[in-house]
Amino acid sequence: EVQLVESGGGLVQPGRSLRLSCAASGFTFDDYAMHWVRQAPGKGLEWVSGISWNSGSIGYADSVKGRFTISRDNAKNSLYLQMNSLRAEDTALYYCAKAPSITIFSQPFDYWGQGTLVTVSS
Amino acid sequence: DIQMTQSPSTLSASVGDRVTITCRASQSISSWLAWYQQKPGKAPKLLIYKASSLESGVPSRFSGSGSGTEFTLTISSLQPDDFATYYCQQYNSLWTFGQGTKVEIK
């Protein structure tokens, strides 16, 4: 059974940093691209970032480019999101999501974790 | 950037009703469209990919159609478990979601 478990969320002041993690199990992690998607409270879904199986292809939404960095450690079956210079508008539930292929492009998201909440507030 | 617009934003329906949700893309996305179902406090679940392909394990009352810029999700006979929010997503160029359609009990 595919499982994605996010962690690392919490309350953080504007301008500070936070690192999210996603622990994957139930599938061969390095055979698939992975993504981060966020959902502000009571709002819709927003793609944040994606990374291919070997980290060779990476993409970011314009809203986080230059502030967030996605990475993965295939030996540890883990996905990460380093978030710097956080803003109030980054407050959201952050989901880890799996693609059905090694490439990030032209693929939907077939499994999602339950999310970790990030609150940016002074 | 490709914008996705869903209609309606809210839909009131009864068990057994046929329900249709529309999603429009701001430019052609071929058939690179997915539909997701999200229930309160839960993660989204993939229902349909490539506009009309049913994800494994999803009931056959769900179907998708369309190509280019106009797409529809149809639930042939609404069941109690189907009351939820539905999102379309384009994956032709990066990834963009529609704003969601909440299907509520009439």
Helix fraction of chain B, binned, reads under 10%
Largest sheet of chain A: 7 strands, mixed
Report the CATH architecture of chain B.
Sandwich
Residue windows where pLDDT falls under 50 for at least 5 positions of chain A:
none
**How confident overall, as mean pLDDT of chain A?**
97
Q: Number of folding domains of chain B? A: 1
As a percent range, the share of strand residues of chain A is: over 45%
What spatial form of chain A do the alpha-carbon principal axes imply?
globular
Shape of chain B: globular
Q: Largest protein interface? A: A-B, 21 and 23 residues
**Overall pLDDT of chain B, averaged?**
97
Distance between the amino and carboxyl termini of chain B:
36 Å
Q: What does it look like?
A:
Chain A has no helices and 11 strands. Chain A is an all-beta fold. In chain A, the strands form 2 sheets. In chain A, strands 2, 4, 5, 6, 9, 10 and 11 form a 7-stranded mixed sheet that branches. In chain A, strands 1-3-8-7 form a 4-stranded antiparallel sheet, with no helix packed on it. With about 110 residues, chain B is an all-beta fold. Chain B has one domain: Immunoglobulin-like (Sandwich), CATH 2.60.40.10. In chain B, about 0% of the residues lie in helices and about 50% in strands. Chain B contains no helices and 11 strands. In chain B, the strands form 2 sheets. In chain B, strands 2, 4, 5, 6, 9, 10 and 11 form a 7-stranded mixed sheet that branches. Chain B has a 4-stranded antiparallel sheet with strand order 1-3-8-7, with no helix packed on it. Chain B is globular. Chain B starts with a strand and ends with a strand. At the A-B interface, strand 5 and strand 10 of A face strand 4, strand 5 and strand 10 of B.
